[in-house]
Amino acid sequence: MSDAVRFGLVGFGGGGRIFHAPLITSAQNVEFVGVVTTNEERRAELAAQRPGVAAFDSIDAMADAGVEAVTISTPVETHAALAKQAIARGLHVVVDKPFAMDADEARGVVDAAQEADVLLSVYQNRRWDSDFITVRKLITDGTLGSVRRFESRFERWDPERRRPSGASGGTLRDFGSHLVDQALVLHGPATRVYAEMRGAGDLDDDFFLALHHISGVESHLWGSWRQGAPGPRFRVTGTTGTYVIEPPMDGQEQVLKSGKSPADLADRWGVEAEDDWGRLYHGETSAPVPTERGRWDAFYPAFAIAVRGDARVPVDPSDAVRTMTVLDAARKSARTGEAVRL
């Protein structure tokens, strides 16, 4: 731990407490120093769950204590302002997704980090989902031939889910940040966006999004909290085969919610059961494809290595700007009923 990056966390709600804290703690090259929260209930939970991890009133107080890097895990409408505050103190920053409210706000954060010469990354953990890693491998090694259509879904059934009350609400910003990021990573920039959304304004709870990529691939993306019969997590159609993987989704989320971490499970972390493997189809014939190991545990070690100057950040923040640009266009398309060219 002598050269470990001294890390802090801003926010200790569900995202910070359940997802970030266990992964920060599990990274061997990271020292988890403290959490910024003024909520007394959260402070009590921090003391019970993470003895020895300090609670701070502000980012400034955390910086004064010698923290080198922070993760912003707060409501999305606060991301940009808090990230800029940390950047102004010379801290390296990870921002949870959604990165910002829109593309212009995202660019402002990226520009601030560049001017301050600090590292900035975005917590796009779904790039390390077991099923996504498997899809990426099948495309890269040519198993599917040339991909023609990419179908991807984050669909869940939770009709009693309470909608958030602030501007940050909405499934497009939430699930869409992951779905669009994955599509752009696999197939490159999009030139045209078409979207349909259900719900009130920014508080949509169901959407469909179609992207036409420069590469010629058509991406069809669905996100919903009101889908009683979720479709395939992925269906990727190429010239020589189609890969399909059904729900459930990658299991790392549920493992973290159960209280387990990579430090607890070691090499068993991210391993999916054989019954949950996807299949490769060639017309009427098909065969199972072993699902690659999920690696959410890789993000913080990679970011710490970047802080020490030995690698690039795990997610380039300019990727988040491109994702936000697509989401901005999707909202416009849903309002007008017309496709939007980028």
Give the distance, in angstroms, between the N- and C-terminal Cα atoms. Answer: 46 Å
Number of strands: 15
Determine the strand fraction and express it as a percent band: 25-35%
Please tally the helical runs, counting DSSP H or I stretches of 4 or more residues. Answer: 11
Supply the number of structural domains. Answer: 2
Numbering strands along the chain, what is their spatial order in the largest sheet?
14-13-12-11-7-10-9-8-15
Tag the structure with descriptive keywords.
2 domains; 15 strands; Dihydrodipicolinate Reductase, domain 2; alpha/beta; Rossmann fold; 342 residues; six-stranded parallel beta sheet; 11 helices; nine-stranded mixed beta sheet
Summarize the structure in words.
A hairpin with a 4-residue loop joins strand 9 and strand 10. Helix 4 packs parallel to helix 5 (103-116) and helix 7 crosses helix 11 (317-336). Helix content is 35%, strand content 26%. It has helices at 14-26, 40-49, 59-64, 79-88, 103-116, 130-140, 171-187, 252-257, 262-265, 299-307, 317-336; strands spanning 5-10, 30-36, 54-56, 69-72, 92-96, 120-123, 147-155, 190-200, 203-213, 218-224, 234-238, 242-245, 278-282, 285-289, 340-341. The chain is globular, with a radius of gyration of 20 Å. It has 2 domains: 5-123, NAD(P)-binding Rossmann-like Domain (Rossmann fold); 128-294 and 325-341, 2-Layer Sandwich (Dihydrodipicolinate Reductase, domain 2).
Layout of helices and strands:
Elements: E1 5-10, H1 14-26, E2 30-36, H2 40-49, E3 54-56, H3 59-64, E4 69-72, H4 79-88, E5 92-96, H5 103-116, E6 120-123, H6 130-140, E7 147-155, H7 171-187, E8 190-200, E9 203-213, E10 218-224, E11 234-238, E12 242-245, H8 252-257, H9 262-265, E13 278-282, E14 285-289, H10 299-307, H11 317-336, E15 340-341
Parallel strand pairs: 1-2, 1-4, 2-3, 4-5, 5-6, 7-10
Antiparallel strand pairs: 7-11, 8-9, 8-15, 9-10, 11-12, 12-13, 13-14
